[in-house]
Write a structure and sequence with these properties.
The protein has 518 residues and is mostly helical. Helices cover 82% and strands 0% of the residues.
């Protein structure tokens, strides 16, 4: 599992670098208005993700469960049935994109962009989203087989090709539609690439119309609809803000808000990427009916992901202003208050991410879905009301407040019930050490923060020093004795010479804290 997590992070590093390069390039070449239109179109089309109806999570869970119980035919039946569903969904999305491209430009007034350009933009991007549905299902199948190396390799190639192509198109003087065409072409190429990687991940994979099972489709739908309800809150939380800002404030203000949310997405992705292999292991443990091991994994992953959330969130809080000035320039430094509010909320959200994973792994996430939808509705309402009174900061507060109410009070109820664990046990063994590390790291990071006009070399050195301080505090106070021993043994095993590795069997006989299955 450790190797899978680092593989995920390698993919995120590439994505973060491409985002860091691509965002200012697009803002510079398109301008604030056209870039705001680009973000607005993507925000509208992101709701297509709801048509996934949680099917990827359902397939991941059932493939992992059947792999855990070693039933090969059921794995193929699950994959064939899920693939059939998303292909039908992709066709529906392409048809919806045609209607959306004809309707929205007539009812939305966007100063500085013609309705014809906006219509073509919606059509091209909508078709790209449709193509990515089967692509993402193939990627989910790869990750369900714990081949995160292939999963991330495919993502890295697609991200690099898309980023380079967009930069070239913009440097040649083309605009919004050329970028949309580039995105469409890359989506088609990525689909073919993932077909190849599925075969590499599972040489025995078999897809056939004869394996499509209506019973399995019903089971997948039953699980996926519950997952959809949980996802709706996330969609309403993150993808409605751009529409609210454009309607209540100004479309140009979508740009600074988007800059802040891009950084939050990168932060969120790092923690969620670490949670992917954890979810796979929880699902396989559930399939094998190994409940005690599942509980221990919940506590351990909560402790470690909480520490990771503290590191990323505190760095954004302390160094976010300087990062924005270096990344996108001083004219967009007004995004820092938004970044600070969102980062504070997501430290708590992501620290409790393993709670969500065990709820879904145990298939007990139906009730949580209704609460999550309520959160999304309240989010939109508060963002509109507070946005009119307090501007962009009000929109950010409207996002964070209902999110924290659900994550702190509702989600723990369902998670602890699913895990059959007391709240005291969870806090004492899962959260106590991160709660000690957090205030100490905040103070230490703030003391050495760089307040003056930032320069990249000095800024990088300060961030590295802050990370080093965090590692020291975490080593002393954040990790248990067993975890420190495991990290030392892992480092020793990785850096020993091959001769010593063969000759010395002392570490082989010791029981590891984490193995590939855990």
């Amino acid at each position: 599992m450790t190797r899978s997590i680092f593989s995920n992070w390698a993919g995120l590093v590439v994505m973060a670098v491409c985002t860091a390069v691509l965002t200012p390039v697009m803002i510079h070449h398109l301008g604030a208005v056209d870039y705001g239109v680009w973000i607005l179109a993507n925000s509208v089309l992101d709701y297509y993700g709801l048509l996934d109806i949680g099917m990827r999570a359902a397939m991941f869970r059932y493939v992992g469960k059947f792999r855990g119980s070693c039933v090969r035919e059921e794995v193929d039946r699950t994959f064939s049935s899920a693939l059939f569903i998303v292909i039908v969904t992709a066709v529906v999305i392409c048809a919806l994109s045609v209607g959306l491209a004809g309707y929205l430009p007539r009812v939305m007034t966007l100063h500085g962009t013609s309705p014809l350009v906006f219509g073509w933009l919606l059509l091209l991007l909508g078709s790209s989203v449709g193509i990515t549905f089967p692509t993402r299902m193939l990627a989910t199948y790869i990750s369900a087989h714990q081949r995160w190396d292939l999963f991330n390799a495919a993502g890295i190639v697609s991200t690099l090709v898309r980023s380079v192509a967009i930069v070239v198109v913009l440097k040649m003087g083309y605009g919004l539609l050329a970028v949309a065409v580039t995105t469409f072409v890359v989506a088609i190429l990525s689909l073919g690439q993932h077909m190849l990687f599925v075969r590499m991940a599972d040489a025995r994979v078999h897809v056939s119309k004869n394996l499509i099972s209506w019973k399995r489709i019903k089971e997948l739908f039953g699980f996926s609809v519950k997952s959809l309800l949980v996802s709706v809150g996330d969609y309403l939380r993150f993808y409605s803000d751009s529409v609210v800002i454009a309607a209540v404030l100004n479309v140009a203000l979508v740009t600074p808000f988007s800059v802040a949310t891009r950084l939050i997405e990168c932060f969120k992705s790092v923690v969620v990427a670490a949670g992917g292999p954890v979810f796979g292991s929880m699902t396989e443990l559930d399939g094998g009916n190994r409940r005690e091991e599942q509980k221990e994994l919940l506590l351990r992953s909560t402790r470690l992901l909480s520490l990771l959330s503290i590191l990323g969130g505190v760095l954004l809080l302390v160094d976010g202003r300087a990062l924005l000035r270096i990344w996108v320039g001083p004219e967009l430094s007004l995004a820092y208050p938004l970044l600070a509010v969102l980062a504070a909320g997501y430290i708590i959200n992501l620290a409790l991410h393993p709670m969500l994973l065990i709820i879904i792994a145990r298939g007990q996430h139906g009730g949580l879905g209704a609460w999550t939808i309520a959160e999304g509705i309240v989010n939109i309402g508060l963002s509109i009301v507070w946005g009119r009174s307090y501007g962009l900061l009000g929109v950010a507060m409207g996002t964070v407040v209902p999110m924290l109410l659900i994550k702190l009070f509702v989600q723990p109820y369902y998670a602890l019930k699913a895990a059959e664990m007391s709240a005291w046990t969870f806090v004492r063994r899962g959260l106590a050490r991160p709660l000690i590390v957090c205030p100490l790291f905040i103070v230490a990071a703030w003391v050495i923060a760089y307040p003056a006009k930032p320069e990249l070399p000095l800024f990088t050195a300060i961030v590295m020093a802050q990370v080093l301080i965090f590692l020291v505090i975490t080593w002393v106070l954040g990790l248990t004795k067993v975890e420190r021993q495991w990290f030392m043994e892992s480092a020793h095993l990785r850096f020993r010479s091959p001769m010593k590795r063969v000759g010395n069997s002392g570490f082989r006989t010791q029981k590891p804290l984490l193995n590939e299955k855990q």
